[in-house]
């Protein structure tokens, strides 16, 4: 292993400082007033990050646990647009023997048709609010359970959703679950998952259990033993997940890097080439294109630019720092020896260490890292 690059960085403390880094690194621009993040505009790197977060959310939500079967809302498109939750449950019971008894889950991504504010935005208790315009996306799960199961699943889903946030965070210890809010009159309970920062806390997901309105559907389940009586609803705003993920990655970085998880980073790898001999720069450029093609064929997203063709080590160090600053987890470094031997260096953003690997192992080795 060889250490590549040393970085110097002053860690931000104020929310305004965090937002300045978000803008500089082309994730999103925003202003803050009285602990309310507003005027949010997502920039170049956010669309890929948002798509990756939603993909992982869908993947994990579909397999919360073997005992909690869930379905994507797209599976009901052939039955019309206005099916209620109970009607969807009835449809699934008819075609899928695994869902003939509850619990039953439904996942959905939908656009909210109005601007919204997530969280409080209070300077007194250091809560951070986020104001969103332009139809933010809601990532929602509904779980139908009977009354006897509701308490067990309410706490189980809290735990599993917190674990999901911890899995993709650079600092898993920042997440807490709020105290339960209970409304005896309406027979509801709710909690929120919060992310804690030096500047305050952000509400990132709500979880609520409430009675199920059986009047919603004319096709009620036939057996009393499997009849759902409660619904547990989890809600995350996709754009809030992006903002929180970016803030988390900045807060966890010690040297100016954004510590984005390799599975959700908008770009997973960069290919650099370095040569002091201009006569072989074209050959190295062709090799860089070939390596990039191999990685893309393995479904690894690449961020390359003309600036990745470098002539000295100081330029390489600076370019590595730039890619670290936007959260690219890995870099492949090609040099003159790569043309002769096929060996190259694989650099890790978080450790700045580089290991030597052969091009023949690249197509199998790197996908294993990202799938782990």
How is this structure best described in words?
The protein has helices at residues 15-24, 46-61, 85-95, 147-167, 238-252, 281-297, 313-325, 336-341, 359-371, and strands spanning 2-3, 28-33, 36-42, 69-72, 104-111, 116-118, 127-132, 137-145, 175-177, 181-183, 188-197, 200-211, 230-237, 269-274, 309-310, 330-334, 343-348, 353-358. The strands form 2 sheets. Strands 2, 3, 4, 5, 6, 7, 8, 9, 10, 11, 12 and 13 form a 12-stranded mixed sheet that branches. Helix 1 crosses helix 5 (238-252), helix 2 (46-61) crosses helix 5 (238-252) and helix 6 crosses helix 9. The protein has 372 residues and is an alpha+beta fold. It is globular and about 80 Å long.
Give the helix/strand layout:
Elements: E1 2-3, H1 15-24, E2 28-33, E3 36-42, H2 46-61, E4 69-72, H3 85-95, E5 104-111, E6 116-118, E7 127-132, E8 137-145, H4 147-167, E9 175-177, E10 181-183, E11 188-197, E12 200-211, E13 230-237, H5 238-252, E14 269-274, H6 281-297, E15 309-310, H7 313-325, E16 330-334, H8 336-341, E17 343-348, E18 353-358, H9 359-371
Helix pairs in contact: 1-5, 2-5, 6-9
Label this structure with key terms.
372 residues, alpha+beta, Rossmann fold, six-stranded mixed sheet, 33% helix
What is the 3D shape?
A: globular
Computed CA radius of gyration, to the nearest angstrom: 24 Å
Helix content: 25-40%
In the CATH hierarchy, the architecture of the largest domain is: 2-Layer Sandwich
Low-confidence stretches: 217-225
**How many strands appear in the DSSP assignment?**
18
Query: What's the main sheet like?
Result: 12 strands, mixed
By CATH, the topology of the largest domain is BirA Bifunctional Protein, domain 2
Beta-strand percentage range:
25-35%
CATH homologous superfamily classification of the largest domain: Bira Bifunctional Protein, Domain 2
Mean pLDDT: 86
How far apart lie the N and C ends? 21 Å
What's the helix count? 9
Based on secondary structure, the structural category is alpha+beta
State the domain count: 2
Helices and strands, in order, run as EHEEHEHEEEEHEEEEEHEHEHEHEEH
CATH structural class of the largest domain: Alpha Beta
